[in-house]
């Protein structure tokens, strides 16, 4: 290091420099001696050449050994001796002062009852502020500590000056009203839109986000914190404090009334989405609030439109499907609201029903009486959308205006199914009173009873049964209500359906029968209940062919054992994996593989997606299972199915350890397939 240092300073362009070595006395003895020798040598050479572009400043306690090492050149070095021993009394006084203040603080803090970490954090900040601003902090009396967290919050906000209060209130309203924490960039645009009501473009409205985090901290103090560029309230209790109307001191005026906050957030989102440059200007800052506004404007405005007539006209503009802004924000909105559904091509009425915007719907129904039963691209009408989303007032209005309660089609089949799936009991009751067909069926969805059973809405199941719903009605993805409830694990609904005479062995649907659905889902209690009701352990059909294959595929050992006890066939064929052994091998469930082999499962049984158990285990990357199957004389040369052979399956899965193990068995074929290439 010293050689590198010397070579660096030997450069002719090297400027005048002072090198500082602090606390030399804290070095190891060997290093200390070596460094002093280097410094002595450098100083002697400098005197000889009269070059003084580099100087050293060394600090150290005046220990004898250090002074002895420097003694040969001590008279040549400038020295300053700071006699700290003469300051002992002052040091002692300062230490005592720290101890006394600490004891005072401990006494004050420990005398308070009902401590929380949040209260302590706020109280200590209060003390720091008092002492920081004091001319005589040593003599300053510690102020009375806040007796509670709300009192601490009140003190923080009372420090805000009158001229800064509108800004702080605006910031806090946005933070409190936002459905999620906003980023600094989003906050910059939201504040800009809120404080510049005449802005026509987002570029004009938005604030510069640079340094905004510091400004927000300075204005709001401890009430907020910023983490990962997102703005948060200090605690959930801070939000509750701001929106509650509990009694405070007469001088405190910081109640953020929820309705006013929602109006502000609606204004921000709606005005922003209607900005003239939002479609044409793709700059990141201009579009910083696009995602939040698109996802949340409808929710913010739902409960304020009835009282804010001027706002209705602004919101109505967003329903114009012909403007460019609509096609910018709607895909974002729809992706968040219905994550796995395609854009249904809604018109304004469908969207108003979906959003629950009765004031907007009133404008449409007044002008378009014939549009009530019109469907969107997905075949869904406004009544179905309102039923799904649980907007009771909208449902009533649509029915009053002549909506067909039994209209069929669309993703949900009919309005009753949509309401049952959504879990909206009052809407279900209203539809039934208006003549909805309780047993209406749809090829894709089945009946409303199946929808309620699948979602676990017990009260709706009971109401539908009271109104004559067919407990054994067949159709839909899960075949019947019993299978739907078994798949999702709703025991109470299973009991209610069985009480009403549901056929425990009814066939059809994705899982063939309720027992297979329960086995796949791993719902042991339901599985046992179905067996008690004499469900057939060997019933065939459905995606997995048999219940034992479904249990093996899911790795549900207890259910698997119960099936064996009930005489389930370990070699039953059919279903996705051909047999239970292949299903367990693919899933990597060694215990189930062992039990099947003990029960005489055919290790070389053919069929299913992977042709045989060895190929399934090889592709899944389960070396232990591959070894176990080979021990049981699985045919390493067996051909067929998806990958042709086990070696190629392991190669495609990139499981080199299994490739090596299979090669050790010297397969007597060339593991090659045209569509995949060669495993070598």
UniProtKB/TrEMBL annotation:
Keywords: ANK repeat, Repeat. ANK repeats lie at residues 378-410, 411-443, 444-476, 477-509, 546-575, 576-608, 609-641. Gene3D superfamilies: Ankyrin repeat-containing domain. Residues 162-249 form the GPI inositol-deacylase winged helix domain. Pfam families: Ank (PF00023), Ank_2 (PF12796), Ank_4 (PF13637), NPHP3_N (PF24883), WHD_GPIID (PF22939). The keyword Repeat applies. The keyword Hydrolase does not apply. SUPFAM superfamilies: Ankyrin repeat. InterPro entries: Ankyrin_rpt (IPR002110), Ankyrin_rpt-contain_sf (IPR036770), GPIID_WHD (IPR054471), NPHP3-like_N (IPR056884). SMART domains: ANK. Residues 6-61 form the Nephrocystin 3-like N-terminal domain. This is Ankyrin repeat-containing protein, putative. It comes from Talaromyces stipitatus (strain ATCC 10500 / CBS 375.48 / QM 6759 / NRRL 1006).
């Amino acid at each position: 290091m010293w050689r590198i240092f010397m070579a660096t300073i030997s450069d002719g362009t090297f400027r005048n420099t002072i090198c500082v070595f602090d606390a030399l006395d804290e070095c190891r003895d060997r290093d200390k001696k070596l460094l002093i020798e280097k410094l002595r040598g450098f100083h002697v050479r400098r005197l000889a050449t009269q070059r003084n572009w580099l100087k050293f400043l060394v600090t150290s306690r005046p220990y004898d050994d250090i002074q002895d090492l420097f003694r040969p050149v001590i008279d040549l070095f400038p020295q300053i001796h700071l006699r700290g021993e003469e300051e002992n009394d002052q040091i002692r006084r300062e230490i005592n002062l720290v101890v006394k203040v600490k004891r005072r603080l401990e006494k004050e803090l420990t005398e308070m009852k009902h401590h929380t970490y949040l209260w302590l954090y706020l109280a200590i900040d209060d003390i720091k502020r008092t002492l920081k601003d004091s001319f005589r902090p040593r003599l300053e009396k510690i102020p009375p500590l806040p007796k509670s967290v709300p009192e601490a919050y009140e003190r923080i906000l009372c420090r805000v000056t009158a001229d800064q209060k509108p800004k702080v209130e605006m910031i806090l309203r946005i933070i409190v009203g936002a459905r999620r924490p906003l980023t600094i960039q989003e906050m910059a645009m939201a504040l800009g839109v809120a404080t510049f009501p005449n802005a026509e473009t987002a570029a004009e409205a938005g604030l510069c986000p640079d340094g905004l985090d510091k400004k927000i901290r300075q204005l709001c103090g401890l009430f907020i914190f910023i983490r990962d560029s997102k703005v948060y309230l200090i605690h959930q209790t801070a939000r509750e404090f701001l929106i509650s109307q509990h009694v405070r001191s007469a001088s405190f005026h910081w109640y953020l009334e929820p309705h006013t906050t929602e109006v502000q957030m609606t204004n921000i989102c709606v005005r922003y989405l209607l900005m003239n440059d939002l479609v044409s200007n793709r700059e990141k800052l201009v579009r910083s609030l696009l995602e939040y506004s698109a996802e949340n404007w409808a929710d913010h405005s739902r409960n304020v439109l009835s009282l804010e007539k001027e706002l209705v006209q602004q919101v109505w503009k967003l329903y114009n499907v012909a403007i460019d802004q609509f096609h910018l924000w709607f895909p974002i909105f729809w992706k968040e609201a219905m994550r796995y559904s395609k854009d249904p091509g809604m018109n304004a009425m469908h969207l108003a029903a979906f959003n629950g915007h009765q004031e907007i719907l009133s404008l449409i129904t007044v002008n378009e009486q014939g549009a009530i039963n019109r469907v969107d691209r997905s075949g869904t009408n406004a009544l179905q959308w309102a039923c799904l989303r649980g907007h009771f007032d909208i449902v009533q209005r649509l029915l009053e205006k002549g909506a067909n309660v039994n209209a069929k089609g669309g993703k949900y089949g009919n309005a009753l199914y949509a309401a049952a799936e959504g879990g909206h009991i009052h809407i279900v009751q209203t539809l039934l009173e208006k003549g909805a067909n309780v047993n209406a069926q749809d090829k894709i969805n089945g009946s409303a009873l199946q929808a309620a059973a699948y979602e676990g809405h017990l009260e709706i199941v009971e109401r539908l049964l009271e109104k004559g719903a067919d407990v054994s009605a067949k159709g839909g993805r899960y075949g019947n209500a019993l299978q739907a409830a078994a798949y999702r694990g709703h025991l109470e609904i299973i009991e209610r359906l069985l009480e009403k005479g549901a056929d425990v062995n009814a066939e059809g649907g994705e899982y063939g029968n309720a027992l297979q659905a329960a086995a796949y889902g791993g719902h042991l209690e339901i599985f046992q209940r179905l067996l008690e009701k004499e469900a057939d352990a060997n019933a065939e059909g459905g995606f997995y062919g048999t219940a034992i294959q479904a249990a093996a595929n899911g790795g549900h050992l207890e259910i698997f054992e119960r099936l064996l006890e009930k005489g389930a066939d370990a070699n039953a064929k059919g279903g996705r994996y051909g047999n239970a052994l292949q299903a367990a091998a693919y899933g990597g469930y060694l215990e189930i593989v062992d039990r099947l082999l003990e029960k005489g499962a055919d290790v070389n049984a053919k069929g299913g997606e992977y042709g045989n158990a060895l190929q399934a285990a090889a592709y899944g990357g389960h070396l232990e299972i591959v070894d176990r199957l080979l021990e049981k004389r699985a045919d390493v040369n067996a051909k067929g199915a998806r990958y042709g052979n086990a070696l190629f399956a392991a190669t495609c899965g990139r499981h080199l350890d299994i490739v090596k193990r299979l090669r050790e068995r010297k397969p007597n074929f060339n593991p090659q397939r045209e569509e995949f290439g060669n495993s070598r």
